[in-house]
Amino acid sequence: MSDHDIERVKTGIPGLDELIEGGFPRGDTILIAGKAGTGKSILATQFIYKGATEYNEPGVFVTLEEPPHLIKRNMIRFGMDLEKLVNEKKISIVDLSPSKEVTPVTIGEYPSFDLSGLEAIILNHVKKLGAKRVVLDTLSILAYKFRSRDILREEFFKLTANITRSGVTLLLTSEIPAQQGGLGVFDIEAFLASGVIVLYNEKISDTSRSRSIEVLKLRGSKHSSRIHSMRITDEGIRVWPGEISPGH
Amino acid sequence: MADKKTRKASTKKDEPAKIEVVLFKSDTCAFCPRAEEVVRRTIEDFGSDVFTLKVINVSENPEAAEEFGIFALPTVMIGGMSVTGIPEPDMLMKMVLGAKVMTNKKVVSK
Ligand SMILES: Nc1ncnc2c1ncn2[C@@H]1O[C@H](COP(=O)(O)OP(=O)(O)O)[C@@H](O)[C@H]1O
Ligand SMILES: [Mg+2]
In which domain, by residue range, is A106 found? Predict the structure, then answer.
């Protein structure tokens, strides 16, 4: 398939599609990396919300971190009513957050397991909705949950392949630890994904910070190689393709 | 769903309190058959009248995995604790004893 033939999935983030030739390549796995508070969860949720409301693409949001009621509360501030979409069966929010009280406490782990449980949970929702978009927020939690790194790597490759096999576009978020380079706690994040987007919220003076976004890589795309201004507005995340971030 | 069932099963008043052992497995999980063997044998060694074993196939019942937040298989769950991977019998024993202490405490405090 030539670059020309790649079908694009609109991101639902105003300004972002212009940086990446019209959207994410359909069926790809895209990593959204950034330090805490840079807007990864908002961006990922907006991708699901806009997919369902503007592009007729049902979506599944899998939360490993924040409980659904907090996600809904945060997003309603941007005029995005997730509850309504859940009721209309256009999206589902899969609660795998630690706040669930019935989740047993893990007291042992032997290096003989796979992630077919997580896979079955996600694919069940994808099937029920006919979902075209899936978000997993956040990958970093898995790295804390399981010690067996080699298994995790291998299993995560399998998992992402099995989710995207039928043309589902998958967004993974990954938290970059505060005092660290790289793209996350895994060290494999960049390999997993055919696209990597990094969010920043850098100090530009003693009293202010500035948000920005960078497309590090994207399969088969002539993407921008600049760092662009990004803001969290009353309508959610917006990117200014013509503005180069002052912090860089 | 599965939650209510398990809770009911383990708190029925007129029956002697049995310890419920839950094994989560799937159709594709390579380590699951071995894990099931280990669990069944350990339960027999311990005296099977004390236990009920419930096997949940996540391929058929993904809702149960979602409800309990089970990502990795095999996972064995006993009384609010779990182990992932093929468990060692010693570890299962520890969990069982832990669960027993809990049920005894409940009876005493009534
Ligand atoms: N209604 C809002 N208006 C402007 N900024 C907001 C609003 N809600 C959250 N934010 C900003 O977004 C940040 C959280 O974004 P989030 O996507 O949760 O970050 P993370 O990258 O950790 O997932 C907050 O720290 C805050 O700075
Ligand atoms: Mg987040």
Answer: 3-244
CATH label of the domain that carries residue A172? 3.40.50.300
pTM of the predicted protein model:
0.91
DSSP classification of residue B87: -
- For residue B102, give how far its alpha carbon lies from the nearest alpha carbon of chain A (Å): 15
Stretch A26-53: mean pLDDT: 97
Q: How many folded domains does chain A comprise?
A: 1
Q: Is A116 on the interface with B (CB under 8 A)?
A: yes
Q: How far apart, in whole angstroms, are the C-alpha atoms of residue B85 and residue B74?
A: 5
What six digits make up the tokens of A143? 């790295």
* Structural domains present in chain B: 16-102 (3.40.30.10)
Neighboring chain A residues of B31 at a CB cutoff of 8 Å: 112-114
Q: Which residues of A touch B62 (CB under 8 A)?
A: 120-121, 123-124
Per-residue pLDDT at A48: 98
With a threshold of 0.85, tell me whether the complex ipTM lies above it: yes
Residue B63 CB-density burial (10 A; 0-12 exposed, 13-18 middle, 19+ buried): middle
